[in-house]
Amino acid sequence: MTHGEQRLWLIQQLLNERNDAAGVQIPEDEQGQKDLLRGLMNIRMPDPIDAEFLRIQDEYLTEENLAEGVVKIEDLTPIKADNRLYIWQGDMSRLAVDAVTLPANSGFTGCYQYLHNCLDNILGSKAGIELRLFTNSIITKQGYPEPTGQAKITPGFNLPSKYIIHTVGPIVQGRLTKENERMLASCYRSILELADQNDIKTLALCCISTGVFMFPNQRAAEIAVETVRKYMEETGSQIKVIFNVFKDIDLMFYKYYLGEPEAE
User: Which of 3, 33, 123, 156 has CB 3.0 to 4.6 Å from 161, enough for a Cys bridge?
Assistant: First the structure.
């Protein structure tokens, strides 16, 4: 099959699984097909699927992800004050590092909203269906929702990164509390500890809880930088950490707290 034929085949297989897919028309344009495929992956429950689907999906996603352009840590420049710390603005799914961070919800099997633009949704669909199956097995064995402030590691599957480290950040309801701040710091600390335990040398951290979980961006950036620096000071860890941001406002805050001057 060609790449386009793989996409159409995957769409049809996912439609065939559903009882509510009668009358769904597959778009003729490429982007419409890509959106439909991603959307169907978003809403698919973590049910078993046959090996042929996974084989073709993995071939398709690997080619798609490579086509978007892989970014290696060698392509980045560390901050002047510490050659272990980096800031990068862009799509985390492009980073070819040892581990990226996924901001999870307590259900731990991803975002089920069709084409929702959260990092959980985007990373999950680019990693592939195996990720949801894997995290579902974790939560089923665990027997309870994933607690806030902890971290777990999974393979990266079809992402350029080897691993994904998942964490559930605090949800801010109304006024920011000291407990919110403590739990956010716990997320970052847990990620770093798990990374070192798994011999991860390069790690990308996202802006945990600053989206739909409503943690104020500036305070979140301050806590992230403080926690990473404190961890490195206490442990002597040589892990290279990329503070991965997407919004301009987060880029500004991270540069400020890392003491990285704006380019003239």
Answer: 156
Q: What is the pLDDT of residues 4-24, one digit of tens each?
A: 999 999 999 999 999 988 889
* pLDDT score, position 264: 44
Single-letter residue type at 38? R
Q: Which DSSP string do the residues of 94-142 spell out, in sequence order?
A: GB-SSEEEEEE-TT-S---STT--SHHHHHHHHH-HHHHHHHHHHHHHH
158, 61 contact by CB (below 8 A): yes
pLDDT digits (tens, 9 = 90+) for 184-224: 999 999 999 999 999 999 999 999 999 888 899 999 999 99
Give the DSSP letter of residue 160. S
- The enclosing H or E element of 191 equals helix 178-197
Other residues' Cβ atoms within 10 Å of the Cβ of residue 42:
20
Has this prediction a pTM greater than 0.90?
A: yes
In 10 A of CB 264, how many CB atoms?
Answer: 3
| CATH no. for 73-257 | 3.40.220.10
**Rounded Cα–Cα distance for residues 175 and 107 (Å):** 24
Q: Is 33 helix (H, G, I), strand (E, B) or coil?
A: helix
